[in-house]
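Task 17 of the worksheet. Students: predict the tertiary structure of the chain below and write it out as structure tokens. Keep your answer in the requested format; marks are given for formatting as well as content.
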Amino acid sequence: MARIKVIVEKTRTGYSAYSENFPVATTGKTIDKLKRNLLEALNLYFEDSGKTISAGNIALTLDLPQFFEYYRVINAKALSKRIEMNQSLLAQYISGIKKPSTRQTERILSGIRELGKELSDIHLHA
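Model answer:
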């Protein structure tokens, strides 16, 4: 099954999410709770067709502030150096003061994905 694209939006009480291609929407106080609710809602929607949806079938779309709030472990200052972007500019994108262009968003995402790939290729020894 193709991945189901889901848009996540911040609300006053947490998060909401909706599918672009299916009539499925849900909310959650945290992103983790939202993911669990989303999985349940999608499985209810597909129940009659016999399809089972797993977390791997879902592609979440977050904006930069949501991403950096959820993945606090990623240091924005270090990332700005890594992708050679002005630290102040990235901070403005993250805080929502400025909205990045498509090109800038891809630049940031590319840096994050590159970091993720590097981390997944690391092996530690005791």
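Marker's comment: The chain has a mean pLDDT of 94. Helices lie at 31-46, 64-70, 76-82, 87-95, 102-120.
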